Amino acid sequence: GWFRRLLHKPKPSSVESGLKASCSASSSPSSSSSCATSSSSSPGTSLARSVHSSPVSVSDINASGSARWAKRYDVCICHSEVDLELVEELVSYLEGQPESFRCFLQLRDAAPGSAVVTELCDAVQNSHCWVMLITPGFLRDPWCKYQMHQALAEAPMANGRTIPVLKDVDRKDYPKELRNLYYIYMALKENSFRQIRDTIMRYLHELCRSSTSRTE
Q1: Which of 6, 36, 112, 128 is the most exposed place for a label (fewest CB within 10 A)?
Q2: CA separation (Å) from 51 to 29, 33, 135, 162, 190?
């Protein structure tokens, strides 16, 4: 009887084992809290509970040999024309930071006379990160969806490169293609701008660190 019970004893799932192992392996309070958040939240929830990252060295990112300069832009802003005023504020904020982020803004930076498809694809390929400002106008604009699909095709598994930002959109209308990504919900503009900036910085920091480790 005891041998039969031992054979039929349920084993913990690989997912649960992985979560317990990763949480127990870390001794810092911030890491353990992030594990708890990840296990209790489904993809597509707000980035308001963003994970604390290690301090970013601005000098490393801005160094002349940094991997940052391998692409023309740090961030491409994908947006609807009706949201241009808000996007211009975001671009002004990012470009005014000490890091002087290089932003692609379609109506400002697209070459006159060039094909829209060519410009959108070129902007995606030549940017490290892509901010998707998802508003009712974004959901109605086929060009916004096209650029979103191009970004996902360019780097489907790149953590932190695609940054969804929701504004005036219900969660049920969140694009299905982005359901595996956490998003920033724009309630207070200043806080959202800072979250976007921190996310870009975190990605550039990881990019430069991995590039440095490969050359050593």
Answers
A1: 112
A2: 11, 9, 25, 17, 19
Give kind and range of the element (H or E) at residue 185: strand 184-185
Residue type, 72: R
State the CB neighbour count (10 A cutoff) for residue 86. Answer: 17
The closest of 63, 93, 65 to 200, measured between CA atoms, is 93
Instruction: Map out the domains of the chain with their CATH numbers.
Output: 73-213 (3.40.50.10140)
Q: Model pTM? A: 0.70
Helix, strand, coil share of the chain (percent; to 5): 55, 10, 30
pLDDT digits (tens, 9 = 90+) for 78-135: 999 999 999 999 999 999 999 999 999 988 999 899 998 999 999 999 999 999 999 9
